[in-house]
Amino acid sequence: MKARSLVSHSAIIIALGLSVSGCTFLERLAEVGEPPKISGIQDPTKSQNYTPVSLPMPTPTAPQPGANSLWRPGARAFFKDQRATEIGDILTVQVNINESGQLKNQTSTATANSEAANPNFTMFGMEKSVGKVLGGASTTDLFNFGSTSGLSGTGSMQRQEQVTVNLAAVITQKLPNGNLVISGRQELRVNAELRELSVKGIIRPEDIASNNTISSNQIAEARISYGGRGTLSDVQTARYGQQLFDLVAPF
Length: 251
Known about the structure:
Elements: H1 2-30, E1 90-117, H2 127-133, E2 143-174, E3 180-190, E4 193-203, E5 213-215, E6 220-230, H3 231-236, H4 240-248
Parallel strand pairs: 1-5
Antiparallel strand pairs: 1-2, 2-3, 3-4, 4-6
């Protein structure tokens, strides 16, 4: 019964793994002998996984321009502001991620215990006879216990990540408080390797520079993805069987 249960359980896990990776497997199978295909340009709001952003918003208030003012509310100059402000406008996102971290721990403990008892042992004057029976054992050192233990451990971790790239994004939503939701995606194919870069998040119009660019560290709820697929990625990725084995292996 246990063997049958284990086999059925393994079959379920394998079926789930194939269902998850089936699309990718079929896509790669169809591209055998050819470079990865670049996807067509699509409306981000029409994507199956697209979800409009909903956040707490303050009560909207319309700006009141001054009667004799030469400045238009929200403008930075006398002329038309060329920065992206409306749905469909394009701006450049400057992705510049350079992070590093280092962690080091060291632990050391030691304990030592010792217990001894030296009672004045008497047995109706027969102490010496008892000692002889016990092989010459001393009746003044009957109990003596001792133990020592120790623990020593060290650990260290060091990482460094650097991504520098510029990416054009489109405004897909304008929130009631004036903040903008942006979404951008870029694909670059070199030989048989396809690199994909995507960015999503929320920005403030005030953070957009005069040259219509914004830094990635000024994006709230940023979702930045940089990866790829192709011949090189296939070689560096464990096969499905190995991934399933690593998932179910208890050791």
